[in-house]
Known about the structure:
By secondary structure, the chain is of the alpha/beta class. The chain folds into 2 domains: 2-198, Nucleotidyltransferase, domain 5, CATH 3.30.420; 205-316, Rossmann fold. Helix content is 40%, strand content 19%. Strands 3-2-1-6-7-8-9 form a 7-stranded mixed beta sheet. It is elongated and about 75 Å long. The two termini are 47 Å apart.
Amino acid sequence: MKYLFFDIECANCFGGKGKICSFGYCIVDESFNEIERRDIVINPKSKFHLGPANDAVIQLAYSKEDFSKAPDFSFYYEEIKELLTRDDQIVFGHAVNNDLSFIRSDCQRYDKPLFYIKSFDTQAFYRQISEEGNDVGLEKLCERYSIEKEHLHRSDYDALITMKAMKGMCKEKGLTISEMIEAHPNAYVELKGNEILKNFNPPTNAKILLDYSKRIHVDRKVMIKDLCAKTIGLDDSIENDNMKLAKALVYSLKRRGAQFSIRARRLNYYVQEKEGSEKSKKVNALKENGVNIEVISLDGILALLNMTKDELNQLIK
Length: 317
């Protein structure tokens, strides 16, 4: 199997429709060895409006003369369609719903038939494997995975960076690219008819905390033996309303040898801040059916962890 990473740049997005001025791609094998890379320069047949983006003007990778001399999208339509629909290839992009909308806009502008595209999204993968609650751009992924930035906003280079970001995520998780897809099979976007369909949802705070807990290891200096076989869970109100507090508690309990779980049935202790949450209802139902779960307050978990409020507040900061 081959993997194609692509990126699109536009001259402008007036009227909410991108006018494509370049289509770049990078094709690799299962081991991320580069097979082919190319930047297709396209005449957008529209004026350039690159405007301020975060107070910095986006720089063109080529001169306006280069774009004006190039063929337009209709000339490259069949080639781009063939690249994105090969049977032996899986497609990737970053925030790829934007790129698919650009293809849709130019197909409509040049009266070309829309075609089905399924593309995995590195932004979606990152949201699912990290504790980030928000979408992140390529620049942040470059920082996270120590990727050198040279020509951002040149399509083939952004496609290469997208590939390197995926490589970094796979290395971080100890997975091949095909295994990463198996682990996150819904991290893709489709252009289906005239619709762009996202098939993934942002991770819940509970999932973010669970992934975070897996990276925290016991510290024998503060380990409490009686906690080593215990599993602790947090109330919905803590997970959803105070992520800093939740992470501080997860960090503290894991360092002391306890386990963290988001599944009520696995719990020995349940930290409840407010009554009536969905998870507290589950816990109470389990207790009524004979499951031994001890419901404790925030002060109770601090006592269990042998911590003071000042120590907890230091972690929250």
